[in-house]
Amino acid sequence: MHKDKTKIDHKNVVIKIRGLEKAFEDYAVLRGIDLDLYQGENFVVLGRSGSGKSVLIKLISGLLKPDKGTIEVLGEDLSKITEKELQHLRTRIGFSFQSSALYDSMTVRKNLEFPLVRNKRNLTRQEIDKSVETVLDAVGLSQTINQMPAELSGGQRKRIGIARTLILNPEIMLYDEPTAGLDPITCIEINELINEVQQRYNTSSIIITHDLTCAKTTGDRISMLLDGKFQRTGSFEEVFDTKDKRIKPFFDYNFIE
Amino acid sequence: MDAADNKPSPIERTYKVSLRQRMASFFVNIYKIHLFIIRFFKEAFLPPYELKEVVRQCYETGVRSLPLISVTGFIVGFIFTKQSRPSLATFGANSWLPSLVSIAIMRALAPLVTALIASGKVGSSIGAELGSMRVTEQIDAMEVSGTNPFKFLVCTRVLATTIVIPILATYAAYIGLLGGYLNISFNEGTSYTAFVEQFFSPLVFLDFTASLIKSIVFGFTIGIVGCYQGYYANSGTEGVGKAANGAVVTAMFLVFIEEIIIVQITGNFR
User: Fold this and answer.
1) What gap in Å lies between CA B90 and CA B104, rounded to an integer?
2) Which residues in chain B have their CB less than 8 angstroms from residue A115's CB?
């Protein structure tokens, strides 16, 4: 599925980050990040392992607290809201983990129901079943409904992880290395799924990856995270049309059709 | 002797740093576990309640521990009776055997043995389960989906152990009584009615209350230690192993300390 860039609303900023800094003990991971994510946009963050890409989306989802700077998500300043308000805000954000993070002790159905029954306690059994079937259908895995996570392949686990976030109809999707550890065919399927999700649910997304195919296929805007800062931001071609020795090898060692 | 001779050797330096780090880590852990307990009391009794999950955890903790508690309780009662007989026989006091067994089982053995068994079985299972959920980002996944993982995972498990351990201890006392009765019945031919009568005659209300309070404290300790170790497990599979091991060792250690304190306190009321 090809991306429809006309859906991006440049007047509507859903995530606004200013001067974001985060350090772990003496090591400064993020050293002044600024970002505006627009409604309907897929923003890809590229970078080497350990460059702070995952830390960035953990800060956006409130799993980590920043040392400096501000993060506004859907108009809410994360540093100024209560724990309860943050919990409510999180229901509007979908987070797809690198490891999928499916609950091992629950079937696929229970995994998908879990966020729903906890956040919308007045739903009937039929409404819950219908939501589960809809999201499973959206990721094309209806047949796995009664399986345990251990019985699924890596690609299926990623899809179910995405389905679990979709069940709450999020406005923003955060993908942490969606294609890591998958074979090339499954990577293509996941990339298509990301685009499908964006168009079907009209979400804005931040995609963390070091897979250039994923970046090229899914990203409206791409940025390289180097030395704790966004070094180059723009379209895929703009980012890699450079002689910068820190960026060029990244492109050279990846195979792009 | 020049100044260089007074400098500590690399081994001494490593030892001092390691000791300092261990001391610091010990006090940081004590501080963190206090915050953990305070958070438990703040969240456990506020809605929304996770009653279904508490019941499920009670089942997991209680029913699955029954076979082990049954075997251990029976053996403790049987062996204790057998080993005590020669000492009493020296004074011709064999008839006091049921009373001795009852005091030992009700006041100390049933709650203590149950707590130790539960520390090993339940504590390690909680530590490993939560530890594994932590390192595979399942706890983070709960958090970002708008669920409070502390309430769902920690409060439910601590409440379950606090409810179930006293019940298991009472059950262990009964099974211990049966073990003691079988031994006495084989050797002295005492009837069950006479045994039960003699078993309960030396016991007073305080014995039951103290035993119950002890079991509640032990249950809470096992739950909170297991959850704390698992919830703050470090990354990697090694972290899961450490969490499970830490849950057992710390819970057993605390159970013994609490046993001493409670015995001292209840002793003042006798």
Assistant:
1) 19
2) 145-147
